[in-house]
Amino acid sequence: MDEVLGRIIEAEREARRIIDSAYEEAKRLEAEARVRAEEQAKIVYNEVIQRAMREAEEEVRRIEEDTKREIERIEEGLLTEIRKLERLVSKNFEKAVNLLLIEVLRP
Amino acid sequence: MSLVGDLEKLTSTIIERAKDEARNIIAKAREEAEEVVKKAVEEARRKAEIEASEMMRRRREEALSRRRSEVAKARADAYRRLLDHKEKLIEKVVEEAKKRLQNIVESKDYERALVGMLKEAVKVLGGGMIEVKLNKRDARLGLSLADIAKEIARELGEPVELRLSSELGDFMGGLMAKSLKVEIEVDYTIEGILERKWRKLRSEVAKLLFSEED
């Protein structure tokens, strides 16, 4: 009878060891998962941020190019306006000078 | 079945059940581990996307703000340069008028204009004893101040006496007239008249200068 109980207790011990070992393995998996989670989270975080930075830089570059074009348009507008003024002045200069001279010399 | 056979079966069952439980524990642990990794990655992605969105919004806003500022500065600068250019073009009129007046004061027609200026100055002063200052060239014209005085006196109905100042004026043409009775001097030099007329006519000249009408 003692031998029977002994075999059963021994089997129970072996079963306990197997389960304890499984729990140990589960703990190891959990710890490994935490490390992996941290690493993968960092990778994903950096990927998203880096992509966003590239997109932001691209958008900033587009805005700067658009600004440059707008300033060029303003400069062109100014030159057009100056050319128009020069044309009008060459047409009206004599009249303007004469108007002034007539007034100065008017008795 | 013998007792030994039953015992073997029992111990074997105990071990097999333990192995099953162990497999379940590990499988569950693997499942949970994958879930931990998945959740961490999702959380990191969610956090990164929020931060990325905020960063992109901030960079865009900064760039747009710089754009607004640079475009506004360029517009203001262009407007200022246009005004400066207009100003220079307007000033060319008065510069040209000065050059032509220099030619006019050296012409024969000028004497008539000078007499006109003198009459105007005397009328402004209300007649009386008046000292007239001319430049060196005009003083040599030999104007008959007595005849001019008589003519003005007739027009004014007041006595007029004109006296040429011994001092010569440093001006292009025209004259300075000083009433000796009331100690008032009026400026009828070409420069003075031009300056007054220019102040009065500047906007009219500018309007005419930049007019699109023929």
Model description:
- The complex is a heterodimer of chains A (107) and B (214).
- With 107 residues, chain A is mostly helical.
- Chain A is 97% helix and 0% strand.
- The N and C termini of chain A lie far apart (151 Å).
- Chain B has a 4-stranded mixed β-sheet.
- In chain B, helix 1 (3-105) packs across helix 5 (190-209) and helix 2 packs across helix 4.
- The termini of chain B are far apart.
- At the A-B interface, helix 1 of A face helix 1, helix 2 and helix 5 of B.
- Output mean pLDDT of chain B: 94
Q: Which segments of chain A are poorly predicted (pLDDT under 50) over 5 or more consecutive residues?
A: none
Structural class of the secondary elements of chain A? mainly alpha
SSE succession of chain A? H
Based on secondary structure, the structural category of chain B is: alpha+beta
What assembly state would you assign to the polypeptide chains in this entry?
heterodimer
| Global outline of chain B | rod-shaped
CATH homologous superfamily assignment of the largest domain in chain B:
ATP synthase, E subunit, C-terminal
The percent range for helix content of chain A is over 70%
In N-to-C order, the SSE pattern of chain B is HHEHHEEEH
The beta-strand count of chain A equals: 0
- How would you sum up the major sheet of chain B? 4 strands, mixed
Which descriptor suits the 3D outline of chain A?
rod-shaped
CATH class of the largest domain in chain B equals Alpha Beta
Distance between the termini of chain A: 151 Å
Radius of gyration of chain B: 51 Å
The CATH topology annotation of the largest domain in chain B reads as: hypothetical protein PF0899 fold
Number of helices of chain B: 5
Question: What summary fits the major beta sheet of chain A?
Answer: none
